């Protein structure tokens, strides 16, 4: 036992540089994703107009629902399995092949459903060429093996592929989007650039990690799909939760109020990127430690999570005192105190959201997907109910209150199962004894 603990502790020390390196490259990945739209959007609006840009945004939102189906939670389930089996090439090859075959099946089904919806509903058929070209985004997203890079804990190649993709997208926009009638090409270029990045990333995986496509069985696919079922429902719940806030607000409030809320929400999502990157970086190591020692896992979480929460709180304090500048930036010099209030409340939600990272990652590492999924699905239901009630009373302030309630429920719910599972695992006899 002592030898095993020493090995685990030594492993944690040697992986500290890996955490920093992966956090750095994954941060670049997220910063590029966040910064490029901020640069491109003003140019696009000047070329295609606000109305056509709205059509592009609507099509992008519509096609993202199909992204959720094709991804099917593999970014979590496959990452977990790759991380604990990375030294076993046969298992890695099987996971790699099974995930891609599963995605191909989902992609085919989604495309047929997508076509059926477009040609069934007049509002979609009127912009059929825009929607058809937008499906390239789903294809590109399906090709990029984020889950394998995370499981192997080597994020620099993912960052490189993402930067290349965004550069291609940016160049295409500058070269080919000149007239309002070119709007249908915007999402196509984003999809094609993602497809290029996906093909390149697969080539890197084959060469760098010596992974190969192998023959798999129907049983392999069925097992993969079945094991990720709850994560899929969880992803759907999260997607509904993230997209329902502005939609419900739009039913009860004026467009101007929705606009103010949307600005605050952008700040909220920008801050959440800190938590997203952190959770993606440490997840493979949590999976490794969970498979070997509960004691080592607890020590690791305490060592990395306490400084991270301090970083999140510092970031929220900075944003809290910079709200006047944020309002002035987005509203061209105007200080909107309602916007400032929304951002301040969002800062509290960010801290609460960050506190659930050890819980949900530990639950997934111990394959407690049902507990994780149950909390998220209930959280989604609570969010919708709270939105309908509070938005009707307080408009955009009610939306933020609903998010605060939802984040609190999810954090406490996951925390309850987290401590329950850790207590159970602490009393189990290790398999290696």
TrEMBL record:
Keywords: Cell membrane, Membrane, Transmembrane, Transmembrane helix. It is found in: Cell membrane. The keyword Transcription regulation does not apply. It is a multi-pass membrane protein. InterPro entries: Poly_Biosynth_Transport, Polysacc_synth. Signal peptide: none annotated. The chain crosses the membrane at residues 23-45, 51-70, 91-117, 129-150, 157-177, 183-206, 231-253, 281-301, 308-331, 337-360, 372-394, 400-419. It comes from the Bacteria. GO terms for cellular component: plasma membrane. This is Flippase. It comes from Ilyomonas limi.
